[in-house]
Design brief:
The radius of gyration is 30 Å and the shape is globular. Strand 16 (670-674), helix 23 (678-691) and strand 17 (696-700) form a beta-alpha-beta unit. Helix 1 packs antiparallel against helix 10 (316-326), helix 2 (56-65) packs parallel to helix 8 (259-276) and helix 13 (400-410) runs antiparallel to helix 14. By secondary structure, the chain is of the alpha/beta class. The structure holds thiamine diphosphate and magnesium ion (MG). Thiamine diphosphate binds next to loops. Magnesium ion is lined by residues 186-188, 216, 218-219.
């Protein structure tokens, strides 16, 4: 091993020794947490444990090169890194194990995430951005292995944008693009498409990211021969290595137990990425898993005796210790004393965390048992309630569920009784449930004043004789205004740049705003969303284009696992104001006409899903979203770009409200609810229905998530007493969701004189061609006949059998 100091600036031996002992302390601290943490699962105090043991040393090196403003996008092994930067304390880790819901005590997720999922706070208490250049940043982890990779790309790209675009206010986000995005991933997870797609895109974009691969040979029980071609990730990735005349990656391979080599490698990698904006891969080999993968099983089941022995010998902490002694940096006695005091520190952190976790439950238990006691004394069912109380008393370490069960069950024994103590128990129970439940549900959407649903409507303004233009002109001119108004807005996707998207909704804008802001990308939906995610986390306002709605499924994992749940899983401590733009509905063929809105609204809770029927409405949605700071998906109508619309004079200003329906035709006989392109079919059918004396009201849902927060549909149903929801999703898809909102949430069932119905497309993907469309999706005749049938059923005299 090399014994030279680790930094390029020469430091004294004393400083060198101090640095090494600081690192040793963190390595031991982290390991001790892992060992004690696993025991907490085995004794039943925690449900699941996954730790960073065996990966300590490279994380210390990464921490040493990590600077203010940098971002981490990593996975569950990185506790040592977090501890080295003082972003995670042993007590925090134990609170995470127990799932303490107090964010002050469990700062990583207020009990929502399993242990080992890390983050830092990007937002102030009032929801505004913190100065991210003054702190070390970690984007919030997710459990899906390799899921951190797409976002890493965007975190790195933000530095490139900030370095190259000078008129953006970067004050809180970047200092001349000098920030590195650091990714970590396990060896086995490098087989995921997300990893390979991100690596390729990072090489193309030449962005400052350093990807560390923690290689312990295994992916749970699966050994190396199943993971990488040639059983070697460096070898597999070697084609990405840059050369004198070609851009690419700088690649390093280093042993995970070699402290000085690690320090040199990380310093080198940091400089290359930071200064040159060249991406780097560090393949860290010969790592181990002293306790096996997680608390779910033991690795003795699948590792040979030889392997287990090898792991013992190559344990990075052990090797680090040996090296410290061999080189005479310090003595055995000093190391022993460090280890002893750390053991004590972790033990007391664990004890304190457990006591703090339990304290509020114990107080609540005391109040509840008193209340039950008092209620029992008055009730005719005294013995049953006393048993409930005694069962609760017997639980020495109660959790919230046990309190809720005891309190709620008591009312079953109090049916028909009425006395003061029962009222007190009722009040206590209601307050307890009302206070407790939100601890698990808050922050799915923004709860701030500027939440998207609070942005007021600004209606389109038209001159006396408005010009009729193609829809695509409206959307294009609106984007033009937006790019002018918001310098931190950028749009990118397949064919988005040079030709200005496949429908010319961005025609000419790349010329005007440059290749950085209106950009083409490769065909790689997942990492397009990743670019947007990472850039949105660093203060930019990205609009990521998915060329056609049908292809959003390639990116759905990143949208659902990362974007949609970010605010929720961070307890509102981070935000990702990403706008996803796509176009869909009503074209032709299995992969170009889909409208899988049910799949999207059910997997993307936490995002807004907007389905404008024309380009003026769509323009208004972008304008609204840019005034707020939440993620959203806008599905433009693919057949609307060439339809004529009146040109408003307030493009860039008009705002379509989110969560509000629009009645586009009033009527008295039946309420028809639809959205997007299908509305044009509905409108045609409604014209034809007029000829047979049926007067239908048409409501445009506009926003699918959330649907009609003002309950305007209910008002319509109160008037018409009939309801039909029409869309081109599969049966039971989005139409069923809308129906359940109207019936269950709005309570419209009370006002119905006919059975409420849905009319959707067939269960299969739509067939190709005009006839394929006609026979796969609801058409004007279907709508006509369904409405007619409803009227016939209620009034057969006036509406005799049609066919
Ligand atoms: C997408 C996905 N598939 C499967 C899993 C289940 N899983 C969790 S960890 C893991 C093994 C990961 O191995 P590796 O990437 O080498 O990381 P290590 O745990 O060895 O550090 C698997 C299969 C998951 N979390 N996410
Ligand atoms: Mg592994």
């Amino acid at each position: 091993m090399d014994l030279s100091p680790q930094t390029s600036n020469d430091i004294s031996f004393d400083d060198f020794k101090k640095q090494i002992l600081e690192d040793y302390k963190i390595a031991v601290l982290s390991r001790t947490c892992s060992l004690m943490g696993r025991k907490e699962v085995l004794t039943g105090k925690a449900k699941f444990g996954i730790f960073g043991d065996g990966k300590e040393l490279p994380q210390l090196a990464m921490a040493r090169s990590f600077k203010n403003g940098d971002f981490r996008s990593g996975y569950y092994r990185d506790q040592t890194f977090m501890m080295a930067l003082d972003l995670l304390k042993p007590k925090d880790l134990f609170h995470a194990l127990y799932a303490t819901t107090d964010i002050e005590k469990e700062p990583m997720s207020a009990g929502r995430q399993m242990v080992g999922h890390f983050l830092t706070y990007s937002l102030n208490e009032d929801g505004s951005w913190r100065d991210l250049t003054q702190q070390k940043n970690s984007s919030a982890d997710i459990s899906c292995t390799a899921g951190q990779m797409p976002r890493l790309l965007g975190l790195a790209q933000a530095s490139k944008i900030y370095r190259n675009l000078k008129n953006i206010d970067a004050s809180k986000f970047s200092k001349n693009g000098n920030e590195v995005a650091w990714g970590t991933i396990g060896n086995a997870s490098t087989s995921e498409g997300m990893f390979l797609e991100t690596v390729n895109a990072g090489g193309v974009l030449q962005v400052p990211m350093v990807i560390s691969i923690w290689d312990d040979d295994y992916g749970i029980s699966v050994p190396p021969e199943y993971h990488a071609t040639k059983e070697d990730i460096s070898e597999m990735l070697s084609g990405f290595q840059r050369s004198d005349d070609q851009e690419g990656y700088e690649m390093f391979k280093v042993k995970g137990w070699d402290y000085t080599a690690l320090m040199h490698t990380y310093e080198n990698a940091s400089d290359i990425a930071r200064e040159e904006h060249v991406p780097v891969v560090i393949h860290v080999t010969e790592l181990t898993q002293p306790q096996g993968h997680s608390s779910s099983g033991s690795h003795e089941r699948y590792k040979s005796q030889e392997r287990l022995q090898w792991e013992k010998e190559h344990d990075c902490n052990k090797k680090f210790r040996e090296w410290i002694l061999e080189t005479g940096i310090t003595t055995e006695e000093e190391l022993k004393s460090i280890e002893k005091s750390i053991s004590k520190e972790v033990r007391s952190a664990k004890k304190e965390a457990w006591a703090e976790y339990l304290a509020p439950h114990k107080t609540l238990k005391k109040t509840l048992t008193n209340l039950l006691d008092k209620v029992a004394a008055k009730s005719q069912n005294k013995s049953f309630i006393t048993k409930l109380k005694n069962d609760l008393i017997a639980i020495e370490e109660p959790i919230k569920k046990e309190l809720a069960v005891s309190a709620r069950k008591a009312f079953r024994f109090l049916l028909g009784e009425d006395f003061q103590e029962k009222k007190e128990l009722l009040e206590w129970t209601n307050t307890f449930l009302a206070d407790t439940q939100p601890m698990y549900s808050k922050n799915l959407y923004s709860e701030r004043p500027n939440r998207a649903t609070n942005i007021p409507e600004v209606k389109p303004v038209y001159p006396e004789n408005p010009e009729k233009v193609d829809g695509r002109i409206i959307i294009r001119d609106n984007f033009d205004k937006l790019f002018e108004k918001y310098p931190n807005t950028l749009i990118f996707g397949e064919d988005t740049g040079a030709i200005g998207d496949v429908n010319q909704g961005l025609e000419g804008l790349q010329k005007k705003y440059g290749k950085m802001r209106v950009a083409d990308t490769g065909i790689r939906e997942t990492s397009i969303i990743g670019q947007g995610t990472g850039m949105a986390l660093r203060g930019l306002r990205p609009i990521a284009e998915i060329q056609y709605l049908d292809y959003i499924f390639y990116a759905l994992a990143t949208l659902t696992d990362d974007v949609a749940c970010l605010r929720y899983r961070t307890f509102g401590k981070q935000k990702v104001p990403l706008i996803v733009r796509t176009r869909g509905h009503r074209l032709e063929g299995i992969w170009h006409s889909g409208s899988p809105m049910g799949a999207l609204i059910h997997s993307l809770r936490g995002m807004y899903i907007l389905s404008p029927r024309n380009m003026t409405q769509a323009a208004g949605f972008y304008n609204t979203l840019l005034k707020s700071d939440e993620p959203a998906l806008v599905v433009e109508s693919l057949n609307g770009y060439r339809l004529k619309e009146d040109r408003p004079t307030n493009l860039g200003e008009l705002c379509t409200p989110i969560g509000v329906v629009e009645t586009i035709k009033e009527g008295r006989d039946i309420t028809l609810v639809s959205y997007g392109s299908t509305l044009r079919i509905v409108a045609q059918a409604v014209d034809e229905l007029k000829e047979v004396g049926i007067d239908a009201e048409i409501i445009d849902a506009q926003t699918l998530l959330p649907f009609d927060i003002r309950h305007d549909t209910l008002k319509s149903v109160k008037k018409t007493n009939r309801l039909l929801v029409i869309d081109e999703d599969v049966p039971g898809g989005c139409s069923a969701y809308i129906l359940s909102e109207i019936l269950e949430i709005q309570g419209a069932y009370q006002f119905l004189d006919s059975a409420p119905q849905t009319l959707s497309a067939k269960a299969h993907r739509p067939a190709y061609g005009t006839d394929g469309d006609y026979f796969s999706k609801p058409n004007a005749e279907d709508v006509f006949e369904r409405v007619y049938a409803i009227m016939h059923e209620s009034d057969p005299e006036n509406f005799p059998q049609l066919r």
